[in-house]
Each structure stands twice: as structure tokens, then as C-alpha cells.
Amino acid sequence: MNTRDVVFPAGRRALYERNRYSPAIRANEMLFVSGQVGSREDGSPEPELEAQVRLAFENLNAVLEAAECTFDDVIDVTVFMVDPQSNFERVWSVVQEYWGSAPHPTVTAVGVTWLYGFQFEIKVIAKLREPSAS
After folding, report:
1. For 57, 90, 97, 131, which has the most beta carbons within 10 A of its beta carbon?
2. 132 found inside a domain
3. Distance separating alpha carbons of residues 67 and 31, to the nearest angstrom
4. Buried b vs exposed e over 86-116: b needs ≥16 C-beta within 10 Å?
5. 82 domain-assigned
6. Which ranges form a coiled coil (predicted)?
7. What is the CATH number of the domain that holds 29?
């Protein structure tokens, strides 16, 4: 088996190791990022929905940054929402703050009944940047 090329953001390694998953893995010039939620440093959910979505994006951006990427490198997004019928517009107004300009990535939005105490999760696939020639 090949060794996984795991990407860890600064300061949250213990949380990932405790829960036994990798925040992101580099493979075939792509970055596969695990679902990111609006968790505080201790792993607890940010209680207010819009703040939780912002924190999920901050956590996502920390993973992307650790892989020398930005949201501009994201090509595919999957979002999960508890009660999307009630929460979609509130969530999507915050998402636009982080989305950037067109062309936008592909997106799949999935309504769920449970996210381990969270209301929103975002999972992405990004294209890794080519190493710059020095």
C-alpha cells in the first residue's frame, strides 16, 4: 500500500488524530479535503448558524493553505446541511462571502438529518498548484 500524503493544518493535528481521519490527502495532483465543520479548537460546534458556516470556511481555508492552495483552486464542492429547507438561504448568504468570482466550482448540496451536532459541513476537491521554478 502507498503511504498517504496527508496535509495537516496548523494547530489541529490532535483533533484529527483523536478522531482517526486525515484532514486532506494529496493524490494525482489533486487535494481531497475531508468535510470541514464550524468546530472550535476543542472540536465543539460554534452555536450560531452563520458563525458556524464562517468557521467551517476558516477551517477549510487552513487546510487549503497547508497544502499551498486557496479556494480559487477548488474544483468540486459538496455541502451538507441540516434542515436545508429552513437554513439554505442563511447558509448560502455566508457561502458567497468565501466563494470568489466566476467561474465557480461545481457544487452538490445535500440535506441531512444529523451532522454530529453541527448544522453545516463542506467537503472539497482542489487542483494542486504546480511547484514554482526557482
Report:
1. 57
2. no
3. 8
4. ebeeebeebbeebbeeeeebeeeeeeeeeee
5. yes
6. none
7. 3.30.1330.40
Instruction: Indicate whether 134 belongs to any domain.
Output: no
Secondary structure (3-state) at 110? strand
Higher-pLDDT residue of 61 and 42 is: 61
Domain count, the chain: 1
pLDDT (tens digit, 9 = 90+) per residue, 7-54?
Answer: 999 887 777 787 788 999 999 999 999 999 999 888 889 999 999 999
**Cα→Cα distances 85→58, 70, 88, 130, Å:** 25, 30, 6, 40
- The per-residue pLDDT for 133 is 57
User: Which domain does 71 fall in, by range?
Assistant: 5-127
Q: How far are the Cα atoms of 34, 47, 57, 115 from residue 65, in angstroms, in the given order?
A: 14, 25, 12, 25
End-to-end CA distance of the chain: 33
